[in-house]
Specification:
There is one protein chain. By secondary structure, this protein is of the alpha/beta class. It is about 35% helix and about 20% strand. The protein is built from 16 helices and 23 strands. The strands form 6 sheets. The chain has a 6-stranded mixed beta sheet. It has a 5-stranded parallel beta sheet with strand order 9-2-1-13-22, with helices on one face. Strands 5-8-6-23 form a 4-stranded mixed beta sheet, with no helix packed on it. Strand 1, helix 3 and strand 2 form a beta-alpha-beta unit. Helix 3 runs parallel beside helix 15, helix 5 packs across helix 6 and helix 5 crosses helix 7. The longest helix has 24 residues. It starts with 9 loop residues before the first helix and ends with a strand. The structure holds flavin-adenine dinucleotide. This is Polyamine oxidase.
Length: about 500
C-alpha cells in the first residue's frame, strides 16, 4: 500500500487529493465515496459536514444514479424513482423535502405495499378497449386480499420458503371458489402485475416469507411533483464530485484505501464508502484487493436485483380520463400493463408506461422507437383515437452498465443475516446504497439512510484510528439535525 502512491499520474499529484496523500498524521481525515446516487451524496454530505476531505467518484456524466429527472419534455419526468414511499415526518427525507418546499401528490392512503394507488383512482380496460366495471375491480381486489391472507397460512405450514405465485396456486387449489373466470381472472392478473411492479420481479420469484415483512412508513405514497432532481441537487451542493470516473479497483490497506479509476488514475484516503448498485458488485465490475471475503461475496450473490422500466410519452393534448392510473387487463400478469397519468399530478400531458420483471428486460431488447410503438399499441387498445406522441423517453435500467437492475429484492429462501453481511464494513471500507438499508431496501429514503449510516460509521472508525488528531478542529455535524432545524410542513396535494 505504501508504495502504491508511486503509480499516481503527475498531474493528479497536483490536485487536492495529493494533499490527502501527503497528510500523514496531521490535517483533516479523508474519505472517498464511490457512486453519486442519493446514498453516495448523503454519505459525502455527512462526512463533509464533519470536516472530512471528501471526494465522490461517479462513473456517469451525471449524478443522481437511479434518480433521474428528465426535462426534455419541458417539465420534470422521473425516469427512475418518482414516489416518496411514506409521506410522513418519520421519513428521513421529509426534512429535506420540506425545506426545499417541494410538493407531493399523494396517490394512496396508508394502505400497504399493494395499493400505492387507491382503487378509485384506476381506470382498467380489457384488450378490446372495454372499460372494466369499477365494482368488479373492487370485488376482485377484495378476493386478491383474501387469497394473500390465505397464503399466510401456507407460509406457517411450511418451514421452507416458496414463491408467492406457488403459494397462490396452493390457495386456489384449496379454495376453488376463489378462482376467477373471464374478465375477473384478468383483473386478478392485473393485481398480480401490480405486486410484481412493487418488487420489480415476477411473482414466481417473490419470497413468500419476506414479501410483507417490510416496515412500510405511514402516510401513503406521494409523487414528487417537481421530480426528485431538486433533492439530488441540494445534496450535491459543494461536494467535490468527479463525473466520468468509473472505479475499477479498490485496494483496502491497513491505513489507507486506494481507489483506481478506468483511465488508470488513483485516489487515496483514510477510508472509502462503496455505494454502487448491487448489480455492479454482482457483475464483478470492481476488483477488490484483497479479495472480498467469502461471506461478503455470498451475500452479494444471494440478494436479488429486479428490473423496472418506463416509457414516457408526451402528447399535444389530453385524450384520456382524469384518473391516476390507466390499466390494461389480460389473461396473464406478463401481458397486463399500465400507464401513470402525470397530467393528474402535474398538469402536463404525459403518460408513463411502466413495466417490471422479465417483461422489463424484454422491453430493453427493443429499440427506443419500437418500445414507444409498443406502448402506443397498448394505449390504443384503451383509446383507439389516441394521437401519436410528440416525444418519448425510454429507460434501460437492466442493461445500463451503471445500474444493472432497478433495485434489490428478497429472493426465495433468503438467509436472515444477508443484510448484515452486505452492510458489514471491511477495515477502512464501508458499504452504502439502497440494498444495505436497515429497513427500506429498494427505496430512495432507504438508500439515503444507508448512505448516512455508512458515513457515520466511517467517521467514527477514521476518528478512532487517527486518535492523535485534534478533534476540536472537526465539526461533528449531523446532516439531518442541520436540516431539521428548518421545519416547514410537507406540501401534499391531490387534485
Ligand atoms: C425505474 C425505477 C423506479 C423506482 N421507483 C422508486 C420510487 O418511486 N420510490 C422509491 O423510493 N424508490 C424507487 N426506485 C428505487 C430508487 O431509485 C433507488 O433505491 C435509489 O435511487 C438507489 O440509490 P443508490 O444511491 O443506492 O444507488 P444509485 O442511485 O444507483 O447510485 C449509485 C451510483 O453509482 C454509480 N456507479 C456505478 N458503477 C460505478 C463505478 N464503477 N464507479 C463509480 N460509480 C459507479 C452509478 O452511476 C450511480 O450514480 C426506483 C428505481 C428505478 C430504477
Amino acid at each position: 500500500m505504501e508504495d502504491s502512491n508511486q503509480s499516481f499520474s503527475n498531474d493528479f499529484l497536483d490536485d487536492t487529493i495529493a494533499s490527502l496523500i501527503e497528510r500523514q498524521n496531521s490535517s483533516f481525515p479523508s474519505a472517498i465515496v464511490i457512486g453519486g446516487g442519493i446514498s453516495g451524496l448523503a454519505a459525502a454530505r455527512v462526512l463533509r459536514d464533519a470536516s472530512f476531505k471528501v471526494i465522490l467518484l461517479e462513473s456517469r456524466d451525471r449524478f443522481g444514479g437511479r434518480i433521474h429527472t428528465d426535462y426534455s419534455f419541458g417539465c420534470p419526468v422521473d425516469m427512475g424513482a418518482s414516489w416518496l414511499h411514506g409521506v410522513c415526518n418519520e421519513n428521513p427525507l421529509a426534512p429535506l423535502i420540506r425545506s426545499l418546499g417541494l410538493t407531493l401528490y399523494r396517490t394512496s392512503g396508508d394502505n400497504s405495499v399493494l395499493y400505492d394507488h387507491d382503487l378509485e383512482s384506476y381506470a382498467l380496460y380489457d384488450m378490446d378497449g372495454n372499460k372494466v366495471q369499477q365494482q368488479m375491480v373492487i370485488e376482485v381486489g377484495d378476493i386478491f386480499k383474501r387469497i394473500l391472507k390465505e397464503t399466510e397460512k401456507v407460509r406457517d405450514e411450511h418451514t421452507n420458503d416458496m414463491s408467492v405465485l406457488q403459494a397462490i396456486s396452493i390457495v386456489l387449489d384449496r379454495y376453488p371458489e376463489l378462482r376467477q373466470e373471464g374478465i375477473a381472472h384478468e383483473v386478478l392478473q392485473w393485481y398480480i402485475c401490480r405486486m410484481e411492479a412493487w418488487f420489480a420481479v415476477d411473482a414466481d420469484m417473490i419470497s413468500l416469507k419476506c414479501w410483507d415483512q417490510e416496515h412500510v412508513l405511514s402516510g401513503g405514497h406521494g409523487l414528487m411533483v417537481q421530480g426528485y432532481d431538486p433533492v439530488i441537487k441540494a445534496l450535491s451542493k459543494d461536494i467535490d464530485i468527479r463525473l466520468n470516473h468509473r472505479v475499477t479497483k479498490i485496494s483496502n490497506g491497513c491505513n489507507k484505501v486506494m481507489v483506481s479509476v478506468e483511465d488508470g488514475r488513483s485516489f487515496v484516503a483514510d477510508a472509502a464508502i462503496v455505494t454502487v448498485p448491487v448489480g455492479i458488485l454482482k457483475a464483478n465490475l470492481i476488483q477488490f484487493e484483497p479479495k472480498l471475503p467469502e461471506w461478503k461475496l455470498a451475500a452479494i450473490s444471494e440478494i436479488g436485483v429486479g428490473n423496472e422500466n418506463k416509457i414516457a410519452l408526451e402528447f399535444d393534448r389530453v385524450f384520456w380520463p382524469n384518473v391516476e392510473l390507466l390499466g390494461v387487463v389480460a389473461p396473464t400478469s406478463y401481458a397486463c400493463g399500465y400507464f401513470l397519468n402525470l397530467h393528474k399530478a402535474t398538469g402536463h400531458p404525459v403518460l408513463v408506461y411502466m413495466a417490471a420483471g422479465r417483461f422489463a428486460y424484454d422491453l430493453e431488447k427493443l429499440s427506443d422507437e419500437s418500445a414507444a410503438n409498443f406502448a402506443m399499441l397498448q394505449l390504443k387498445k384503451m383509446f383507439p383515437d389516441a394521437t401519436e406522441p410528440v416525444q418519448y423517453l425510454v429507460s434501460r435500467w437492466g442493461t445500463d452498465p451503471n445500474s444493472l437492475g432497478c433495485y434489490s429484492y428478497d429472493v426465495v429462501g433468503m438467509p436472515g443475516d444477508l443484510y448484515e453481511r452486505l452492510r458489514a464494513p471491511l477495515g477502512n471500507l464501508f458499504f452504502g446504497g439502497e440494498a444495505v438499508s436497515m429497513d427500506h431496501q429498494g427505496s430512495v429514503h432507504g438508500a439515503y439512510s444507508a448512505g448516512v449510516m455508512a458515513a457515520q460509521n466511517c467517521q467514527r472508525h477514521v476518528l478512532k484510528k487517527l486518535g492523535n488528531l485534534n478533534l476540536e478542529k472537526l465539526q461533528l455535524v449531523n446532516l439531518s439535525d442541520e436540516i431539521l432545524e428548518t421545519a416547514f410542513p410537507l406540501q401534499i396535494s391531490r387534485m
